[in-house]
Amino acid sequence: MAGTRRPVTTIKEQVYQIIKEDICNGVYPPGYWLQETDLSAALSVSRSPIREALRQLVADGLVVEYPNRGVFVKEYTQKDIEDIFDLRIILESYAIRRSGQNLTSAYAEKLNAFMDTLIYYHKAADLQNYINADTGLHQLIIELSGNNLVISTYERVYSMVQQFRIYSLTSKERFDESVTEHTNIIQNILSGNAREADRINRTHLELAREKIIVYLNKKNALP
Asked: Which residues form the HTH gntR-type domain (predicted)?
């Protein structure tokens, strides 16, 4: 159509997304030294877009820059996890309470699709794909807020805990509970019972936070 343009993705933006995804997926674990020369060689780009991408990741809170030492993937404390999940609960609660105003047939179809997908991967005991679907569901719930600021804030907050997702479902019992919780959250949103959906989701996030904190405390206790 005349007068419209596709958004241009710069090399810096591409580099930023690649490094960010690698941090979120655990390729670069907490405490990892992100050296410009290594990243430049790995991504076949100059050091300039690497440097710009690292600055953005510092602003995002995913990495930390220490003078005269370099840039390192952020190491999270129990307080960090508590703060992140407190904010997630606030944002997702707001989105669920607003869902009735924004729940179109298209969104309802997507919610049902996520429910089917989560049940499928749970039955297949496919934890990684289950977690990916879990991520997509919570992002969709945030979209139901209809608030762009909430959506952008959530994206930044969620990125901080993505690398720990798998540790919230380390036991079969918790895996089983999770799929039941997700199913109930979706069904209550679809039926217009936002209060019950919010209650279940809060419990769901509190349990995830607890499991991640247990993992962090065990990891930090190692010599």
From this structure: 9-76
